[in-house]
Amino acid sequence: MIRRFLAAAAFLFLIPAGLHSAGVDVLLVGADDEELKPVLAQMSGAAEQRIVSWTFWSGTLAGHPVVVLRAEGDPLNAVAGTTLGLRHFSPRLVVVFGSARAHDPALAPGDLVVAREFAAFDGMISRVTPEDGGSDPTKWIALPHLLMEPGEKPVPQMRFPADNTALAVASRLHPARGRTAAGVMGSAGQVNREADRIARLRALWGTSTEDAESAHVAGCARLLGVPVAGWCVVDGTAGEAGALVVPFLKEWK
Amino acid sequence: MKRLLLLPLVLAAMALRADDEPSAWMRDKVEVAAAADRPVTVDILVQGAEQLEVDDLVAALHQPQKRAVGPFSFWIGTIGPHRVAVSLTGEGLINCTAATIAGIEEFAPKLIVNQGTSGAQVRYLGLHDIIVGRRALDYGNFTSLPRGPGEGSAPLTWQPVPQRLRDPATGKWTAFPEGFAGDPIALAVAMRTRNPMGRVFAGVIGSAHEVNLELDRVGWSHRTFGMDVEEMESGHVAAIAHAFGVRCIAFRVVSDAPYEHVPFFPLAARATALFTVNFLENLPPMR
């Protein structure tokens, strides 16, 4: 609790003076235009704004003042856009959504995974192996992220927790096809199609799914002291996850 | 920063730190800025990921003041003719990307120097040698081909995916397969700067949240990306600097050399910090 308070207090200092007037309720983060289309289509008073290389849309959705970020589908752009979104728009909550590939073999296309936690699974350490000894990712071990906290404190974290209130609301969402399950949304700038590596990643990080930005967005939100939630549709079609944003906002207070 | 080869040991050491505060000498020396909202600009933002990578730089600051921006600490003062903010970014993409954006927006630097430790990816480098980044890139993104259960993993066949950025002026989505070039003026000055503990070479710095100790993959990284050293920040920082139009250079000291069986030596960070102080004293005033 104290740590949460400190992080929240620290965030107040993070907001650059004069960059914004009042905070929005939610920063909504999707990878690309296709994912964002159903969200922007329902937004009233949408105004586009580019901050350096990152594009935002401000407006109202389901009665909430929101900002939408196009995260561009890789960890660096997602973290950069999220950092700017948090600094310039001061949201109360970050929500990241999109399509993902399954790590959990029990998941089927169309299933909705609501994040209980997020894991940025790109951290690894390999074993000392001589030349011609090969390279074997199924023997790599996980390298956690050391998120900074005020006072020069790096804190190792394997997973970033989702906000409990938002998770409860998101868990009541119904996908267009498939079922809803809570799980661990994983991300890295990787497209993993090797079954043995996917099994290893799931064993190391507990991941249910993989995409290219969700856990990095969550890690950035945690770093800067803002609650985060998220969901993904397994092998989702364009806009399938985005279509759940308005139902979520109608229930979230 | 590179590299927690003995991760459990490092984590245990962190847990055992008495108060997790900066070194006692630093608390005595640095004034904590009272007015956190007072605007401050600097010529140069100098970054390190770990306390050991910034301690000597903070010690070299004239009239330092500490400023906290969210979870990040900055120490502001002068070195040589330059007004400098020393930034403790923390390790890896998430920390360094957020810290770089905070540093640019808060202090409007003309140049970013990202410096710290690294693992050699080539045989010619030894402990305490420094690579000045001719270019820096993210080497951690890839796509793999399908393989069924029991068919293993073949990382040397993975297809790299270059970092992409949207051009701020045109919105054009652009790939940077070679990464981002180091600032040519800073590069030239750095190549004339003394490393008190080893040699200096211009080279290629690769960044990912990885510690690679399999020599076949180390060799693959060198062949595929031209990497001389691997670490966890400079390619990401260079991308952000490029987007914001801020000049950038990276310095990386070799703190471990797998070909030479040299394990991680954290105090190598002092070499690159002292080299950076020499560089700042050599660098002509910024315009």
Mean pLDDT of chain A: 93
Distance between the termini of chain B: 30 Å
**Count of DSSP-assigned helices of chain A:** 7
| Main β-sheet description of chain B | 5 strands, mixed, barrel
Helix content of chain A: 25-40%
Walk me through the structure.
The complex is a heterodimer of chains A (about 250) and B (about 290). Chain A is built from seven helices and 15 strands. Chain A is α/β, with parallel strands linked by helices and about 250 residues long. In chain A, the strands form three sheets. A five-stranded mixed barrel of chain A has the order 5-14-12-6-15. Chain A has a two-stranded antiparallel sheet with strand order 7-8. A two-stranded antiparallel sheet of chain A has the order 9-10. In chain A, helix 3 runs parallel beside helix 6. Chain A is globular, with a radius of gyration of 18 Å. Chain A starts with a helix and ends with a helix. The N terminus of chain A is likely disordered. By secondary structure, chain B is α/β, with parallel strands linked by helices. Chain B is built from eight helices and 16 strands. In chain B, the strands form three sheets. Chain B has a five-stranded mixed beta barrel with strand order 6-15-13-7-16. The longest helix of chain B is centred in the middle third of the chain and has 16 residues. Chain B is globular, with a radius of gyration of 19 Å. Chain B starts with 6 loop residues before the first helix and ends in a 5-residue tail after the last helix. About 10% of the residues of chain B have low confidence. Chains A and B meet through helix 1, helix 3, strand 7, strand 9 and strand 10 of A and helix 1, helix 4, strand 8, strand 10 and strand 14 of B. Strand 7 of chain A pairs parallel with strand 14 of chain B, so a sheet runs across the interface.
